[in-house]
Amino acid sequence: MSSTSDHHVILRVTAKFLIPIITLYAFYVQFHGDYSPGGGFQAGVIFAVGIILYALIFGVVDALTLVPAIFARYLALFGFLLYGSVGVVAMLNGGLFLDYDFLVAEGPEGHWGQHIGIIVIELGVLFAVAGSMLTIFYSFAGRAPEIDDEDW
Amino acid sequence: MSDTATAVSQVDLSVVLIDICVLSMMAVTAIAIARLRSLFALVMLSGVYSLLSATWFVIVDAVDVAFTEAAVGGGISSALILGAMLLTVRVAKEDKPLKRLAPALVVIATGGVLLYATIDLPGFGDANSPANMYLAQEYLQRNYPDIGIPNVVTSVLASYRGFDTFGETGVVFIAGVAVALLLGFGERSLSASLAKRQKGEEE
Lengths: 152, 203
Description:
The complex is a heterodimer. Helix content of chain A is 69%, strand content 0%.
């Protein structure tokens, strides 16, 4: 943001350092959800918080160039449909809706169907939550005029 | 024998002290939230309250709930309310002191009833309480042979109760779409800001 005055330099430097770590942590929470607390919902929220932090520090205009609003809402839609499509694939393979055992042809002792199903639906939750949260934030922030320093 | 007894009582004492600290900090934050009029301070304090309750959930061994509370209550809610705050005035209206009497009575009565209800609750971590016996036992026994992943919370959420989670994801998606439809998608402001910036560079 070209109009940012100099006294935000500490905020900007700290945010630049923190945003990659926040994003990386979101993916850690996402892909480690089978073993530790957390999953798609928390990961999506953390990912969205990283982008929102960027928007708060560097301005909504720059954030909208980084993650366009249209991308955010199609990401949400894609995540929701990805979740549902796992259920439909299970149905096409002869099982019930969202019965992950039917995703992979394997014996009753195999767990690949469950593993793949859980990973894909958690990805769907991640996309849906991150996209929805960003859409909500853009809707609020898009209406506000540029934030002046004295407003805080 | 006496050594172990002392050790146990020390552990209990430190846990109790931490409990009292966290709960009294939550109470102080709640009172401050009720009394403050500046919206910015209110948003920050509600974030603090969420982080304190996340700490409290960790103390009672509900790590998944604590994680969600920290991410949603402390993180995204504060950021979203900050964004919403910019659309309105910064300071709440002063209201007459007597107007708060009826809400205060309702709050005190509800709190009293809830406190009275805690008498009937089972003890913390009671293995014989209904929540820990029937379905929970079955999930804990069946989880690993059924699903093959160690985190029972994830397997209940994503597999056993996958249809519920599908509905929850739908609710989040619908919430995003509804807010965007009510408030607009943000492109108009983007184009306005870009035009403003271009104008500023030309001058």
